[in-house]
Design goal:
There is one protein chain. This protein has 290 residues and is an alpha+beta fold. It has three domains: 8-99, no CATH class; 102-183, no CATH class; 196-288, no CATH class. Helix content is 35%, strand content 13%. Strands 3, 4, 5, 6, 7 and 9 form a six-stranded mixed β-sheet that branches. A three-stranded antiparallel β-sheet has the order 1-2-8. A hairpin with a 2-residue loop joins strand 6 and strand 7. Helix 6 (213-228) runs antiparallel to helix 7. The protein is globular, with a radius of gyration of 23 Å. It starts with 13 loop residues before the first helix and ends with a helix.
């Protein structure tokens, strides 16, 4: 049976199909990318989490959609799925193959330019390397959380992320080093409390109501949910959430670094860089005069 008639179906883009079936045989879950090197969007059934899962950039849920509409969470090693009618239309429109590194037990250090490559060669242990359009992918054995812009020109792609497949690469695959894990440790900026007189109660001995644990926890949780639920305009959503939290809790000193870290983590799970989080936080403080 030829590749073009695999399982009795007419398959598009035989080169892509050969690649994904080869990856599947090696236990590497893959998915198609459309123009712009981005995954396919959610189908109408799965839009807005209507399917009960968490489409695209969050953890895969119980959705049984047969299509390829859940970004990295749709990546699979099942040849029956990869060549199914539901995926055939996506392969017709695909321009490249991506894979889910975390699903294959791997971490990709994505080096975007010559400066990033020079830094990696001086800092990280040599491992399997794949040339990219502008830089290199350094691939390690082991998984971790994915993070963008851990330093200039450097992204980490592992769990809940995807990387474009550009070939097997060269060099031996080595274990994920602590030096890469350390790149993901980000400290949020310290929250400077406003002068106590700004939010002091009018009655002697009355405590700041924002210090009520339930009230503060609800505010942080609502901001996290607002950020993680964003399906577009993520930058603006992050800034708006930061502004809302600071307008309510920013003047009485009740926010802690742990609260800020939760907000930054939510923003970074949507692809925001640590630098953008810091800028958005500082801009919100400036807007409120904090």
């Amino acid at each position: 049976m030829t590749q073009a008639t695999l399982r009795g179906r007419a398959l598009p883009a035989p080169g892509l199909i050969r690649t994904v079936l080869m990856l599947a045989a090696r236990g590497i879950p893959s998915l198609p990318l459309r123009v712009g090197k981005v995954p396919f969007g959610n189908c109408p059934t799965c839009a807005g989490n209507a399917c009960g899962g968490r489409p695209n950039m969050k953890t895969p849920g119980p959705c049984q959609c047969p299509g390829v509409c859940h970004a990295w969470a749709a990546a699979t090693t099942d040849p029956a799925v990869l060549t199914s009618p539901a995926w055939t239309d996506a392969w017709r429109r695909a321009v490249a193959v991506a894979y889910h590194p975390g699903g294959a037990g791997l971490t990709v250090v994505d080096l975007d330019d010559a400066d990033a490559i020079a830094w990696a060669r001086q800092t990280l242990p040599a491992t399997r390397t794949v040339p990219t359009t502008r830089g290199e992918h350094w691939i390690y054995r082991g998984t971790m959380a994915s993070h963008n812009a851990v330093r200039s020109g450097v992204d980490i792609k592992s769990s809940m992320s995807y990387a474009r497949y550009l070939g097997p690469g060269t060099g031996p695959l080595v274990d994920l080093p602590d030096a890469v894990r350390a790149l993901a440790v980000k400290q949020p900026p310290a929250v400077r409390p406003a002068p106590r007189g700004v939010s002091m109660p009018t009655r002697s001995g009355e405590r700041c109501p924002h210090r009520t644990p339930v009230f503060l926890e609800r505010g942080i949780a609502m901001a996290e949910q607002r950020i993680t639920a964003a399906r577009s305009a993520v930058h603006a959503t992050v800034y708006g959430a930061f502004l809302a939290v600071l307008s309510t809790h920013g003047r009485c000193g009740c926010l802690t670094d742990a609260h800020v870290a939760r907000l930054f983590t939510a923003a970074q799970s949507k692809g925001e860089s640590a630098r953008h989080c810091t800028d958005a936080w500082n801009n919100a403080r400036t807007t409120l005069g904090l």
